[in-house]
What we know:
Layout: E1 12-16, H1 28-42, E2 46-52, E3 63-64, E4 69-73, E5 76-86, E6 93-98, H2 100-103, H3 119-137, E7 143-147, H4 153-159, E8 171-176, E9 184-186, E10 206-207, E11 210-212, H5 213-220, E12 223-226, H6 229-234, H7 245-250, E13 255-257, H8 285-298, E14 308-315, H9 321-331, E15 337-344, H10 346-358, E16 363-366, H11 371-380, E17 383-386, H12 396-402, E18 406-410, H13 413-418, E19 432-434, H14 439-455, H15 457-468, H16 474-493, H17 509-512, H18 524-527
Parallel strand pairs: 1-2, 1-7, 2-6, 7-8, 8-12, 12-13, 14-15, 14-17, 15-16, 17-18, 18-19
Antiparallel strand pairs: 3-5, 4-5, 5-6, 9-11, 10-11
The protein binds adenosine-5'-diphosphate.
Amino acid sequence: MLGVPREPQPLRVLYVSSEAAPFAKTGGLGDVxxxxxxxxxxxGIDVRVVxxxxxxxxxxxxxxxxxxxxxxxxxxxxxxxxxxxxxxxxDVPVYFLEYNRYFDRPFLYGPPGDGYGDNIERFxxxxxxxxxxxxxxxxxxxxxxxxxxxTALLPVYVNTVEWAQPxxxxxTIYTIHNLLHxxxxxxxxxxxxxxxxxxxxxxxxxxxxxxxxxxxALRHATLLSTVSPTYARxxxxxxxxxxxxxxxxxxxxxxxxxxxGIDTEQWNPATDPHIxxxxxxxxxxxxxxxxxxxxxxxxxxxDPRIPLFAVIGRLTYQKGYDVLAHSMDRLLSxxxxxxxxxxxxxxxxxxxxxxxxxRPDKFKAWLTFDEALAHRIEAGADFFVMPSRFEPCGLNQxxxxxxxxLPVARATGGLVDTVRNYQEATGxxxxxxxxxxxxxxxxxxxxxALSTWFDRPAHVQAMRRRAMGEDFSWDxxxxxxxxxxLDAYRRRRGHPFxxxxxxxxxxxxxxxxxxxxxxxxxAPRTSTPRPAGRRGRRPARRSPRK
Length: 546
Ligand code: ADP
């Protein structure tokens, strides 16, 4: 084959995630997985997403692929169905692994504050199943992109069970979206992964006497990334490394911080269908209408002069809501209003729920998950409070900036990389940052925002316009990921990825052994397996999910 011209081929990336919006989302990982692949596709990358088919996903709108996928598990072979959908507004295929025993449950990971007891097994299935799928559909990826502990076994499998197999030459990327969750279990649980005891040592899975999937991924992946440059530095320290800082320091030359983007179409105040009126940095009248609507919805006095603060997010320790709770008495003694949208720890829900009942004139808590309301809050509020204890990237501060809602945020992780601190002397900046995570520092910084609102309104207006002009589009991040993929490919294969008819034929043993039938055409649509029945036809009856 050497010297024979071949067709230009796009880079092939298998993107595996335990959640992807709009199909399933509990937080930022879902947002990222729903949007980044689309931005990669726009760059000409043949990217395909694999995720579980959870209860609640509209399975009847998906194509059921012919046949079954056999996934080796510790107890035998799981026979799964595969359904095919696409990310909205694009051409990115999403393969849903349908295995009801693991995924037909009320929650993605477990009830609030708890995880299902068999989570290691459930997500072993996802990782192993994703690799098996590539062989069945004839899509041998150049890069496998794994995200967080649920997919941490992917780089390990590529280096072990796939050794000398078709996926042998595939490079792997492991992205840390949140290092707090590592996939930890009793050491004896290693058998669930199908791997032998020889992998249970500190160089792979063993971490102070426990099984740690993330640690193994950090050791095995070709390259590592996380979702902001500051978090990439922080997780190499004992304070933020969640026990894995030593491993991360060892691999610091392979660890990259790529700031997440946001979906600038979905989060666009000029077109947002959820909000009371549309607005832009040049025409801000609509924001006044949105504020009045939010004040009314919260049951507050409708008054444009009263600054309106907002909080949205998971009510967990990570987000620093305990500190916010301790500063609420002081905050509510001032001339402001505050709304909160969130779900999470019972303590947090009880506290903010009770406060909302006690101070209905100034504080309103919606203890629910409501995407449309999140848009209305971002549009209507003046300031957005984010007292995160740590924040790998954070999306809400970027949504806020885009809606001219100035963040009051703790200077940590991605918040440092996205919010520019206010300079009183010049009026520069896009928000208000504080360092110490204490009720006093948080209240002082809210007070700083408040005094700016009342004493220097021109600065607030200028900051708003500046904030709305920041570029948080995914295109910038997608270019960085593409470079990461190419670097990983070169590292794995020992030669650069080449496209175009003049590219040399595959040079490595692995690549040259790639069967022709596995080569997909550049357009993913045409290279997917034949669906059962006519494409697009809905199943006549609901297939059993139980
Ligand atoms: P994390 O991933 O740590 O939860 P991020 O800021 O990265 O934090 O992303 C959180 C995402 O989840 C954002 O899109 C945010 O708007 C959304 N979100 C969190 N809680 C709620 C809620 N109660 N209602 C609506 N959206 C929410």
